[in-house]
Design a protein that fits this description.
The structure is a homodimer.
Chain A: H1 5-8, H2 17-28, E1 43-54, E2 57-65, E3 75-81, E4 87-94, E5 105-113, E6 116-126, E7 132-141, E8 147-149, E9 161-173, E10 176-185, E11 191-198, E12 205-210, E13 221-230, E14 233-241, E15 257-260, E16 263-265, E17 270-272, E18 278-279, E19 286-293, E20 299-305, E21 319-320, E22 322-323, E23 327-332, E24 335-340, E25 348-362, E26 368-375, E27 380-387, E28 395-400, E29 405-409, E30 424-428, E31 435-442, E32 445-450, E33 455-460, E34 469-485
Parallel strand pairs in A: 1-21
Antiparallel strand pairs in A: 1-2, 2-3, 3-4, 5-6, 6-7, 7-8, 9-10, 10-11, 11-12, 13-14, 14-15, 15-18, 16-17, 19-20, 20-22, 20-23, 23-24, 25-34, 26-31, 26-34, 27-28, 27-34, 28-29, 29-30, 31-32, 32-33
Chain lengths: ~500, ~500
Amino acid sequence: MEWTREKRYRPYEQYSALELLELQAQANNSAYQLRYHIRPTSGLLNDPNGFSYFNGEWNVFYQSFPFGATHGLKSWMRTVSKDLVHWENRGLAIAPDTKFESHGAYSGSAHVVGDQLFLMYTGNHRTSDWTRVPYQVGAWLTQNGEVKKLSHPLIEQPTFASEHFRDPQLFEVDGKFYAVIGMQSQNNKRGEMVLYQANQVTGPWRFVGPIKTGIKDFGYMVECPNLVMVDGAPTLIFCPQGLSKNEFAYQNIYPNLVLQGESFDLATATLRRPGKLQNLDAGFDVYASQTFNAPDGLAYLISWVGLPDLTYPTDRENWANCLSQVKVLHQKDGQLYQSPVPAMKSLRGRSQVIDGQVTMVDDQAGQQIEFEVTIEPNQKGTLWLAADQILKRGLQVKFDTQNGKLILDRSKTDEPTAVEYGHTREIDLPANQAVKLRIFLDHSLAEIFVNDGAQVMTGRYFTRQSDQTVAFDRPTQVHGSLWQLNKM
Amino acid sequence: MEWTREKRYRPYEQYSALELLELQAQANNSAYQLRYHIRPTSGLLNDPNGFSYFNGEWNVFYQSFPFGATHGLKSWMRTVSKDLVHWENRGLAIAPDTKFESHGAYSGSAHVVGDQLFLMYTGNHRTSDWTRVPYQVGAWLTQNGEVKKLSHPLIEQPTFASEHFRDPQLFEVDGKFYAVIGMQSQNNKRGEMVLYQANQVTGPWRFVGPIKTGIKDFGYMVECPNLVMVDGAPTLIFCPQGLSKNEFAYQNIYPNLVLQGESFDLATATLRRPGKLQNLDAGFDVYASQTFNAPDGLAYLISWVGLPDLTYPTDRENWANCLSQVKVLHQKDGQLYQSPVPAMKSLRGRSQVIDGQVTMVDDQAGQQIEFEVTIEPNQKGTLWLAADQILKRGLQVKFDTQNGKLILDRSKTDEPTAVEYGHTREIDLPANQAVKLRIFLDHSLAEIFVNDGAQVMTGRYFTRQSDQTVAFDRPTQVHGSLWQLNKM
């Protein structure tokens, strides 16, 4: 089926319930389906939205097009959790049913105000001649899960922004509300992040200015900006599109970047003494990450595992993408660290310990596992995951702890994806040192935390589920543990 | 909204996807929603179907009308589990899309034949003048979850049966296939169970005869018959409608009964040396139970928690009912025992021990708990569950271990239901003996196993979720443990 514009923007009430039930069954029955990550109940999932802690529960919403693996008319779906690991699907939360979001309830964030959760997001409207008009809109989520939309937009498209003006991230400092918004300038079509401020969350909202970072050019657009405090350091996490590779080297179609400073001046929207641009994730598929400072003071992060403008093998099953696991952020000396949340250990089931000169780890480990392994210095070889028993097929982690290299390689999986952006992702490690890996597999998703989360490599991979081997290609000096994981 | 016949039988493709998404969100957000039982993703659930072990997974299908809390056009939804406790929703499995099931894919069973699962069930057809025509139909479920329906019915309505001829239970003995079917006779409109036999599961199916049990009259209909071996004893589990209370005393609108014998003669459809009729469940809401002999030789049982012709408070939220937990059946000296499956313990989280003269057990226990408690002899009082702190509101278990009485009482819950059939259910216990209770609460469902499952009392209850107390109304000599349970 071809996804014509007309089909992609058909109102949800014009799709049949039977079609939706069949799409849900198809997603439920997929061999590639995730078991302990947030995934679409049908159709396409993209950005996480409204990540927050409200009424005793963690909330993560996500962008959804429920009717196929394409970017059609978007709504928000809601999931909640007590522990950031076991997520419960609550279903459709924001349907695109007002004029302001007639062509999609696009991404946004959430912040507790009083005893309700305030949602601030982008309404995507198209005029009859298909001109896009972005509105930053608001809604209240009550404690019993009802959504009440504000009757008027919070912020209309300013003259200095093109039609690309979206993804507000709402936060509160000293009783005042702030929103960072991604945009493209009207005059020269360059990407920017801008800051708005309001005394009441429902407005009026006042333009503070473009966020000053010292970076000259972000390309033609910045999506999904976040400003969050990580161990006292103001941290920008954002997705520039069209960023010059002279500015920053990246391999994915669009990167998800991090920039930390010493302080942030809200009055002038200035990041003081910015450090160096860093890749948030050294893998294949992290994008549109959302982060917020929770009441416990920590910064939590969740990402879309998927990228704009790419196709995935599950497209043929009419569903696509998932969210990453939640990570807690720390920083030390300008280095960002991402860690699994403590409750991830609650998924652990049957375990086994490895120690010494190891080749085969487990030929029936399966693809719903955690593997925590330290590879000693001066080891070189390949760790195979989700592999067949003769190690001809699977996901490869190539390591060289002498020269300090780690490569994630999807080329030997059944269905390598996005090959035009390369089969491999490589990172540098400290030379002549052990490397500690904490690897999670979830049927078609690998998340690898390197050296306590100093780097993370996230990637979808697609290979047969009967390939259940975890093994080194040669005797390797290691120690660690492998766990079967329960579904969430 | 009134559920006219026309609305109830609208084809699924004429409901909108938006409506379904909203119904799913409504069910997901219900305060009464179950967390570790199979429940409808939207609308109404009734009979469990196709309970089986196939391709390394336990399968339970259920009757579904996804569009509201009414008995409309039925389909089969599928769930699977590795451990009989953690069920995973696989969604729509049998849509009512052939002539034979034009007015519902009704109840049936499943049996592994070769490398596929054979589904045998009732197709409900209505002619243009609304005459019901029941067909016993077949379908293959492949290992990858595809359903392929047979082009012709397995058994057409025989002349001796009225339009009420349904719920085939398929099993295999010595390479031959048998089906027990519930029906109403054409001539005198009385309920019967009949036996069919086939050498190939796809037919031809041959009528063996009515099942002879020694019971003179089952009322006007028998639904959901099962014949299963429990520790060597042939056991009939079935639901007579209109059974005389002289034949068997029962309080629910329709009972779910058990009848065991010493042997069963398949050639003549005769249960030899039948014992006494027993209530399968001494509570309020068990009906349409389905059981089968698994490859491990044991008999497992799962029930609809809900009854025909009753309404429930969740009707206003457009969803209704759930399935019970799975029970393993045993028998000793003609007494049936029902036990939770071993993996139920895997749900256990935080625990506390009680021992001695106890009044308050926990005023923040909540309603997702297991409470295993032995009440010593000569104790009389009330155990309050899901109660407020002053024990004025909640679900009551009244016990008298001197005279040997146990009463489950819903009268003090917020929304007593089916009150025309009484607020209480009572059972006799051995006098002057301790009683051992294993109680499970799941937000609006209580399952109480009495004395190692010699009796079970199952009941929905509806009271506010903020009532979290478990307590005795006076100091009571007890010992036991209380666990918070994880969601499945």
